[in-house]
């Protein structure tokens, strides 16, 4: 029983360590490659697109739903991003507007 437990914990530790170390090992080998440069250039937009799809997927867009908070949050996010070109600032601003309005209007 004890050996099974220690084997399971050891395996979990090894897998976790490798999953965290492999990206850094790959990055040192790919340093300066066009693949890594393109990945770094397109990753923020890809992350924003995935967040957008995930967030808007769960919204009830029916005629009786209260969607003002979601729409204004989306508008603020896009507006701040176009204005400042800062993904973190635009996500925080849009989230704050969305949460404030959906809480206030609920």
TrEMBL record:
<keyword id="KW-0472">Membrane</keyword>
<feature type="transmembrane region" description="Helical">
    <location>
        <begin position="6"/>
        <end position="26"/>
    </location>
</feature>
<feature type="transmembrane region" description="Helical">
    <location>
        <begin position="68"/>
        <end position="83"/>
    </location>
</feature>
<keyword id="KW-0812">Transmembrane</keyword>
<protein>
    <submittedName>
        <fullName>Branched-chain amino acid transport protein (AzlD)</fullName>
    </submittedName>
</protein>
<dbReference type="InterPro" id="IPR008407">
    <property type="entry name" value="Brnchd-chn_aa_trnsp_AzlD"/>
</dbReference>
<feature type="transmembrane region" description="Helical">
    <location>
        <begin position="88"/>
        <end position="105"/>
    </location>
</feature>
<dbReference type="Pfam" id="PF05437">
    <property type="entry name" value="AzlD"/>
</dbReference>
<keyword id="KW-1133">Transmembrane helix</keyword>
<feature type="transmembrane region" description="Helical">
    <location>
        <begin position="46"/>
        <end position="62"/>
    </location>
</feature>
